[in-house]
Specification:
It contains 20 helices and no strands. The protein is mostly helical. The protein has one domain: Sodium/glucose cotransporter (Up-down Bundle), CATH 1.20.1730. Helix 3 runs parallel beside helix 13 and helix 19 runs antiparallel to helix 20.
Length: 482
């Protein structure tokens, strides 16, 4: 264990807690705790969206994938992140107008009371698994540099995040995200410059040719698998409460749109840099046998103390920023839908207290889930299945629907979400079933969710037809028997 890494870790935690704990002493109500009183400008929205998106999979998985497979790694996280934000741009007005409502509120309004608990369960479950994927990354990453066990590393990282989340809520998330955004920017810039001095594209091309990597510079290589991964993430992130929460917290619709647009532009460039950096790793690690991510090995053995410390902090910023976003948004949905908060309630202190308790509850559940999985991408993929298969179809439809359709929403939630649940427990080893692994299982789950919605809509139409026929019979003129 090199001394610069524990020192960098302590300095980073100090900065993070200082930024996160600079919060108002008293929150007025639930909305101020989870939506920052809906006063965020475009820069803060952009910073928070970027920091929430750039997680462990962005830095650790994407660089590993790019080192192995080349340009096609852009499909893993980069392309779906940019496409999702472009899809959210025209939806920003409708989402911002939801006010302090959660997706569960919208689903109940369109599909009836039964849809609320199912929606809340899927959302909270998604956030727990997403936070768990970042905890897995934190445990694996920190144990290499701090010399601690996996569980200890995981507990320290999660504990630090929960401290400022419980104290400052969403405002603390936004403030720490601004700090982490600039740390990420500095770290990735340093990584790119450092790799450029140690590697070259001619070496990359020559080595890729010798190793038989024919599609290394082909962005569409492995398209069948990568397209399913990208589709899974796009569908999940479009309906994800993480993005919706930031849009709802915007000062105006214009601020929301500018923030989403700026984040899309930055992430397009950022992920291109990540993939190119991953490819430059190839000559430095031509025949890797290490179980650690390539970024971890580079920090430990090639980068040097100063540059290694900077990249180390950037990776930590990526992991903890996404972890904080998932925990806070999960707690928002859980506490809001348990309390059935309404603005007419006096005070608001119980709502804030419940929000803090929900934060700890979601954090504890994510910690337990992190002990069941060890692969970052698979864990994040299983999280995306929950939203893509269970909520995308009924959730997006609910934003635009004018009429209530209880059967359509409920059947879609139960069929798509139920299949995602069975797949999750199958891959976790709880229910060992012969089901295709993620992402191969995605088309089946989407088909079930869509089929449930279509069947429910057809049944709703049949019910309306019968009611109309019965009403006409009731008002038919009496028969003249004279």
């Amino acid at each position: 264990m090199k001394p610069e890494f524990p020192l960098a870790f302590l300095l980073y935690l100090g900065l993070l807690l200082a930024a996160g704990l600079l919060f108002p002493k008293r929150f007025r109500d639930f909305e101020s705790f989870f939506l920052a009183s809906r006063r965020l400008g475009a820069p803060r929205i952009a910073f928070s969206l970027c920091a929430a998106w750039i997680g462990a999979a962005s830095l650790l998985v994407s660089t590993d994938q790019a080192c192995r497979e080349g340009l096609s790694a852009y499909w893993i996280i980069g392309l779906p992140a940019v496409l999702t934000l472009l899809l959210l741009l025209p939806l920003a007005g409708a989402i911002r107008d939801l006010g302090g409502s959660t997706i569960s509120d919208v689903m109940e309004a369109r599909y009836g009371r039964a849809a609320r608990p199912v929606t809340t369960a899927l959302i909270v479950w998604y956030m727990v698994v997403l936070a768990a994927s970042q905890m897995v990354a934190a445990g694996d990453f920190l144990k290499v540099f701090l010399g601690t066990s996996y569980l200890t590393s995981l507990a320290v990282a999660a504990g630090a995040v929960l401290i400022y989340l419980g104290a400052g809520g969403f405002l603390s998330v936004v403030r720490t995200h601004a700090l982490q955004f600039f740390l990420l920017l500095a770290g990735i810039a340093g990584l790119t410059v450092s790799l450029g001095l140690r590697s070259s594209w001619s070496e990359v091309a020559a080595l890729a040719g010798r190793q038989g990597k024919a599609g290394y510079f082909n962005a569409f290589a492995h398209a069948d698998r990568n397209a399913l991964i990208a589709l899974s993430f796009v569908l999940a992130w479009t309906i994800s409460p993480i993005a919706w929460q930031r849009i709802q917290a915007a000062r105006t619709v214009a601020s929301a749109r500018r923030g989403v647009g700026a984040a899309a532009l930055f992430l397009a460039l950022f992920y291109a840099g990540i993939v190119l950096a991953g490819m430059l790793f190839l000559p430095l690690f031509p025949s890797r046998r290490s179980a650690n991510p390539v970024v971890s090995d580079y920090i430990a053995f090639r980068a040097g103390p100063a540059m290694g410390g900077l990249i180390f902090v950037a990776v930590l910023a990526a992991i903890l920023s996404t972890m904080a976003a998932a925990l806070n948004t999960g707690a928002f949905s859980l506490s809001r839908d348990l309390l059935r908060y309404r603005r007419r309630e006096a005070g608001g202190a119980p709502s804030v207290a419940l929000g803090r308790a929900a934060t700890l509850l979601v954090g504890g559940a994510a910690f337990l889930a992190a002990t069941r999985f060890e692969d970052i991408l698979t864990t994040q993929g299983l999280a995306s299945k929950i939203m893509a298969e269970g909520l995308f179809i009924p959730g997006l439809a609910a934003v635009f629907m004018k009429k209530r359709a209880p059967l359509a929403g409920l059947l879609s939630l139960l069929s798509g979400g139920g299949y995602a649940a069975v797949c999750f427990f199958s891959e976790s080893g709880v229910l060992p079933l012969p089901l295709p692994p993620w992402p191969r299982s995605l088309p089946v789950g989407l088909a079930l969710g869509t089929g449930g919605f279509i069947l429910g809509s057809a049944l709703e139409a049949l019910k309306r037809t019968r009611r109309l026929r019965d009403s006409r019979l009731d008002i038919s003129p009496p028969i003249d028997k004279s």
